[in-house]
Amino acid sequence: MDSINRNKGQYVFGINIGYSSITCSSYNNETDKVLNFKDNQATTFATHVVIEKSSGQMLCGRDVLNDWDDLNSDYYVVSSIKKILCDSKPVKVGSFEYTASDITAFLLNELKEKVKNRTQGVLIEKAVFAIDNDFTPLARKNLREAAKKAKIEIIHMVHECIASIYSNFNNIKELKNILVIDWGATSLSLMLIKNEGGFLQEVFQSQLNIGGDNINESLAKFIHNDLILNGNANKIFVDIDNNCRRKLINKCEKIKRQLVKRAISELSITNYGNTIGLRRHITDEELQQVICPVVKKAINFVEDTLKGYEITLNDISCIEFVGGNFNAPYIKQQFINKFNKEVKSNNNYLYKASMGAAKLALLHGRYYTSNSLNVMLSEGTLFELVSPNKDLDFIEDELNFAVVEDCDDAYFIFCDSDGKQIGYMKVPVYGFFMEKIVVDIWADNNNVVHVRACSNRKTNEYAKEWQYIMPKFKYELPKY
Fold this sequence. Notes:
28% of the residues lie in helices and 32% in strands. By secondary structure, it is of the alpha+beta class. α7 crosses α9. The two termini are 32 Å apart.
């Protein structure tokens, strides 16, 4: 039972939705204590959902994930809610139909129930959600709808890297240039953040599509090739049955987590290909051998990115490691050997984002624009719609534009402060010379900027809207 004294202090929550796991943390303002919640198997909550086709019943949790290999065609598997949050199409399972927010709400309700059971009845009623840069405007909207269905108020949405830094901010608040290396299931993200004057501002970000899933697959290939050498398999890894390949990869993911805490682990699969069963011991040394090329590729990416931006290690004040891959001692050590800039931390790499989000739930910061948003006029000049250093909470404006030639549509071409085109919008018009187009601009509580335009000679049904997430965030930290 997790220890929460409900009579002492205020408990607030932070939730981070990743590709393969959800982390949840609570923070007590009086004791300055953070509590991280785990699934039944002492690890994070999985982001997959299994749906039975005949009944429409949804199931989730690590227990279900471990039984995934034994599920037959009677079940539909949503491998990650993060993936479906970016999709507007409903999920059809048998005679049932679910939206992304329906499935995500189910998962959030299950998370609430597990937290309630482990805290003697404490409910998640409000939370700050930490999200990454891949969350589109649609994904943010679907997430907010899901939280509402689960009766969780989203106090604030914050970038994962900001939340991760804030989880350890007492140790780094005097440091100026913070490099965040976030290595999760599907990608490695690199971000340089300037910490100055009470603001965290993104200098650059870059991403490599290589993650923990690649390590799982590399380990699975290693084990399968060993079977071929011993005469227990006659097909190369890519040619084996999809179900067998998935079984082995899933088992390798579990083995990888186990080897974080022990030197040897056993992998066992029944009915694997031509063999009656597969049983093999995996050592930590074998895991290191397998993942070494993946780690080298990740380290080379970091070095090449810094070189491309003409940044040396001397320019970096500290490095914040984030993501479950850094829980593996070998991976962490290789990065420390190469980039010896890590500062004192709780070393709970998988929970840093949810821990920081929980701390921000008491008093969160504010987003500001770091550059301008412009529209290109007919003569090729830029007109500023949103200025730099503008508080997103106060972006609200109405502007009037006019059509300068006979046409069926008016085209709005949006550009950044350097004149680079970043999007466009086609607005139906009657085509009269100097026909007025009313443009409304505002930012919502998902940190998304909206531009809506409609001819004053047409009804609102002809209005068009363009949505934009401002790049290179600028975040004002809370002031206590």
